[in-house]
Amino acid sequence: MDKERLIDRIEGFLQEAELKPIRIMEVCGTHTQAISKSGIRYLLPNQVKLLSGPGCPVCVTNEAYIDMAIDLISQENVILATFGDMLKVTGSTSCLAEKKTNNVYTVYSPEDAVDLALKHQDKTVIFLAVGFETTAPIIAATIKNVFENGPTNLLFLTSLKRMEPVIRLILNEDKKRIDGLILPGHVAAVLGAEAFRFVTDEFKIPSVVCGFEAKDMAEGIHLLLDQITGRTPLSFANLYDRCVSPGGNKLAQQYINEVFEVKDGIWRGIGKVHNSALMINQKYKRLDATHKFTLSEKMYPESSHCQCSEIILGMKSPFECHLFGEGCTTEHPLGPCMISSEGACAIHYRYGRVHNCLAK
Ligand code: SF4
Questions:
Q1: Per-residue confidence in pLDDT tens, the chain, 360 aa
Q2: φ, ψ for residue 325 (rounded to 5)?
Q3: Which of 85, 121, 201, 242 is most exposed by smallest CB count within 10 Å?
């Protein structure tokens, strides 16, 4: 069944259901993008609110991590290699782009950082490694390879996060806030669908692993709404079995377990989340930039203007921020959710304009 017919069916059975708002969270930034790009967000009845979760890696990167990166560029003979999205993310006072130095390079993968280190053997190259369990395996594989084969002038400053603890935190905080969850498809491809069964088993809300095509998303939302409105019994489902197996990618998991250890992590807008960070373990410590340069992450109070923290916790939609589209746009972003291409505010702003709908 195509996307439009699925939406029609949703409208049909919601008319029969009790008129209370239904709140569904999509955890992953790529899902936020797919839902907005396809127009699904704007086609659904007003009663259904789709909330974006904490699945944009740049948006949850702590201010202190950016401060550490800024500290590093002032060190002699250091080059920073970073994904482009990170350049405009602010630390406690400024961002890497504002520093206008010539020792910050944009890269597209960890392999690019290896190439950079081989090209600049008289310098120390530091790769800013951010992401979730999706990017962690390739970063782990690169660290292992560099550890065994060099180059010896490449270090890693990591801010890698785990999804499960933050999902638990969101669901524990207010059990009535979220009625259903679209689970992170990419992370599930690495960890396996079964890694997320706890959402339905423990928190008693429907949850679904689904793909990123418009039809995948519409099917996932339909399945959740069927359960939320009591038409079908509560269940956990994997609609993305063409990419996500029950147990996930064992080789990717091996790399993660080989190179990283689980520690408490600091999330921008959320604070410390127990067991939510993947940090370089003792064996690979000599490649950890924080080890060599004695850096440590701190926590900062949130800016009173930007409401990214409420947005990534599913308490508000970007449209509810009074700065959205006014003081804060993709051209002049005020917070990380507007900076990153996977940030909820940037996605709502970009596709809201495309679909001529800047409020829902
Ligand atoms: Fe922050 Fe801008 Fe989003 Fe408001 S619209 S929450 S200021 S990023």
A1: 666 777 777 777 666 556 678 999 999 999 999 999 998 988 888 889 999 999 999 899 988 999 999 999 989 999 999 999 899 888 888 899 998 789 999 999 999 999 999 999 999 999 999 999 999 999 999 999 999 999 999 999 999 999 999 999 999 986 668 999 999 999 999 999 999 999 999 999 999 999 999 999 999 999 999 999 999 999 999 999 999 999 999 999 999 999 999 999 999 988 899 999 999 999 999 999 998 887 766 655 555 578 888 898 888 889 899 999 988 999 888 888 998 888 999 999 988 876 666 555
A2: 75, -10
A3: 242
Regarding whether 274 and 170 lie in a shared domain, the answer is no
The parent domain of residue 18 ranges over: 3-57+164-238
Query: Within this chain, do residues 234 and 267 fall inside the same structural domain, yes or no?
Result: no
Q: Whose CA is nearest to atom 1 of ligand 1?
A: 306
- Closest residue by Cα to atom 7, ligand 1, is 306
Q: Are residues 76 and 211 in the same domain?
A: no
Structural domain tally of the chain?
A: 3
Residue 11 neighbours by CB distance under 10 Å: 14
Q: Give the whole-angstrom CA distance, residue 148 versus residue 284.
A: 10
Pairing of strands 22-28, 180-183: parallel
Any ligand 1 atom below 6 A from CB of 69: no
**Which residue, 238, 266, 285, sits at the end of a domain?**
238
Dist. CA 327 → ligand 1 center (Å): 9
**Atom 5 (ligand 1): residue with closest C-alpha?**
324
Query: Cβ(259)–Cβ(281) under 8 Å?
Result: yes
| 17/45 same-domain check | yes
Whether residue 125 contacts residue 154, with contact meaning beta carbons closer than 8 Å, is answered with yes
Cβ of 312 below 6 Å from ligand 1: no
Ligand 1 mutation target, pool 59, 268, 305, 306, most atoms within 8 A of CB: 306
Asked if residue 359 belongs to a domain, the reply is no
Residues 350 and 333: their CA atoms lie apart, in Å, by 12
